[in-house]
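Dig into what follows:
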Amino acid sequence: MQQVKEITIYDIASQLKLSPATVSRALKDHPAINKYTKKKVADLASKLGYRTNNFASNLRQQKTNTIGVMLHELRSQFMTSVLAGIEKVTTEANYDLIIAHSSESAAKEAANAMNLFHKRVDGVIASLAFDTENLDHFEPFEKKGIPVIFFDRVFEDADGAKVIINNRKAGYEATSHLIDQGCKRIAHITANLKRNVYAERMKGYRQALSDRGLKFHEKYVIVDDLSEEGSIHSARKILAMKPMPDGIFITNDFCAAVCIQTLKEAGIRIPEDIAIVGFNNDAVSKIIEPKLSTINYPGMEIGELVARSLINHLQGSSDMQLTNTIIIKSELIVRASSLRKKK
């Protein structure tokens, strides 16, 4: 198939007997060009199928007005909310997005990082995969002075800008609430503890047990991949425990909803037999029966904040390296799944 030649401003200029500079200014609605000429240029451009070559223009200015977004997964409501917040702010600022998906693979994350680097993005927003061990694949950006800001899953001790919540505090509040409801044997279903979000929530869980005089038992900690299959497997592990836990803090609402369904099918009453608290305040938390107590993790606001921090930095109105770590407020939302005591 023969490739169709791309129409340029020189083609338009030649047909209208105008200079290329005049055509360029007319297409950019420059005030020095009269309305008649602008209309002539616009009409012919439309007829010929001319497309503005923003990429070439931006490269001449050493920028592409493009931001790379690195996500570890796309299925959760939390992540789609973050993406919606990012998109809202970047659209208002006339930036385009290139979205890369690591599928929870450090190798794919590194390949995506190199791809974004060669796409000449102006900046990167990233949340790390389950098994990412270091930030070496982001070094090319640092060497070129291309800003990178991390959110949610980060290396908390590493230099660089990041937006997170206090996951330890959130884990502490979720577990303390279960203890307040009379739970004595509290299990914790979590994910890969290499990631800060899960490691910190686990620390909060253990601290709450310790502060309230309850012993930590390794057997009550279940690490899964938060998939539907993994969540069913975790619920079956709970059912096999002797004695069974009377409370569970689950680090993800989807996983919690699947666990509730599996436990109910086995005849377990929620919250009378087992009280449950999830995490994220996803839409599923209001649909599952009983409605799920959870930690509100405001994805839209996080997306807006992380995008605004990056764009302000790119536009020179602030330096995100000065603030470094931004901590967003989270809160416990109590619903029927954990309420064993009347208010």
Q: What stands out?
A: Residues 77-92 form the longest helix (16 residues). The chain has three domains: 9-52, 65-164+299-328, 167-297+332-338. DSSP finds 14 helices and twelve strands in the chain.
